[in-house]
Design the sequence.
C-alpha cells in the first residue's frame, strides 16, 4: 500500500536553506508527509562552515524509532562519516520494496583526504540498494575517480557510476560549462538524456537537496524514474525562479 510518508535521512542546515529543511519543504509541496532522521548538525565557526556528525547511538535510536513506519520512499542526504553511513545502509537494506534516492554528499569534498576516501568507498556500497543517485560534478568525480571537463566527460562518468552498481544516475553539472544554462546528464544503463535550463540569479541554496527530494516525491506519486527526474528539474527551476534573494550564501554546500 502506498502511503504519503516519506523519510529524509539528512543533515540540519544552520541557515535553513538546504538539508532537512529543503527536504521537508519539498515533500509538503507535493502533499506528502515528511519524516526526518538527522545525521548531523552544522555551524559557522572560525574554521568556516563545519559539520558535526550525530552520535552513532542517537542516530541509531532515530532509525529504530522509524523502522515500523510504512514509508513510500526514502531520500538520503548528507552522511557525515562512515559510522553514520553504515547505519543508514543497514536501514535501507530493510526497505528494498520502495524507491530510495541517494544524494551522495561528500563532506569537505574539496579536500581529497583519508576521511573523504573512506566515505567514498562506503557510499559505493549503497549503489545496488538505491533507485537513483544524484551527485554533483565534484561528487561524481570523486565517486568515479575521474575528471570532468566536458559534457562527454559527464556522460562517461554517468556510465562509470552505473557500472559501479548504480541503477540510474543524474550527474548535476550546474553552470560549469556555461554561464547561461545549467546542464545535468541522466543515464539508466540504456538512455542518456541531457537536461538543460537557463541559469538563474536567484537564491539557489539547497537546490541539490530539493532536486533529490523532488525525485523521491515523484516516485511516490507513481512516476517512472526518468519522468521523475524531468519533473524535478522543472520543480527546482521554478523554486529558484520564485525564491527570495536574501538567502545566506554558505561557505559549504551541503545540498
Sequence:
Amino acid at each position: 500500500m502506498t502511503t504519503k510518508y516519506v523519510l529524509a535521512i539528512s543533515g540540519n542546515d544552520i541557515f535553513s536553506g538546504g538539508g532537512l529543511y529543503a527536504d521537508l519543504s519539498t515533500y509538503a509541496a507535493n502533499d506528502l508527509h515528511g519524516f526526518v532522521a538527522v545525521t548531523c548538525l552544522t555551524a559557522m565557526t572560525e574554521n568556516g562552515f563545519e559539520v558535526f556528525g550525530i552520535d552513532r547511538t542517537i542516530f541509531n535510536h532515530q532509525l529504530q524509532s522509524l523502522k515500523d513506519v510504512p514509508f513510500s520512499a526514502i531520500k538520503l542526504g548528507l552522511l557525515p562519516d562512515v559510522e553514520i553511513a553504515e547505519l543508514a545502509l543497514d536501514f535501507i537494506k530493510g526497505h528494498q520494496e520502495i524507491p530510495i534516492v541517494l544524494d551522495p554528499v561528500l563532506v569537505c569534498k574539496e579536500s581529497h583526504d583519508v576521511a573523504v576516501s573512506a566515505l567514498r568507498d562506503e557510499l559505493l556500497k549503497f549503489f545496488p540498494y538505491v533507485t537513483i543517485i544524484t551527485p554533483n560534478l565534484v561528487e561524481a568525480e570523486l565517486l568515479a575517480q575521474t575528471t570532468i571537463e566536458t559534457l562527454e566527460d559527464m556522460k562517461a562518468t554517468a556510465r562509470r557510476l552505473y557500472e559501479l552498481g548504480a541503477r540510474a544516475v543524474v550527474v548535476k553539472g550546474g553552470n560549469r560549462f556555461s554561464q547561461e544554462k545549467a546542464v545535468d546528464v541522466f543515464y539508466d544503463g540504456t538512455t542518456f538524456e541531457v537536461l538543460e535550463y537557463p541559469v538563474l540569479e536567484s537564491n539557489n541554496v539547497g537546490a541539490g537537496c530539493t532536486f533529490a527530494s523532488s525525485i523521491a516525491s515523484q516516485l511516490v506519486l507513481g512516476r517512472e524514474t526518468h519522468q521523475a527526474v524531468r519533473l524535478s528539474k522543472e520543480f527546482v527551476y521554478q523554486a529558484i525562479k520564485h525564491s527570495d534573494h536574501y538567502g545566506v550564501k554558505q561557505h559549504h554546500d551541503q545540498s
Q: What stands out?
A: Residues 82 and 119 are 6 Å apart (CA to CA). The chain has a mean pLDDT of 88.
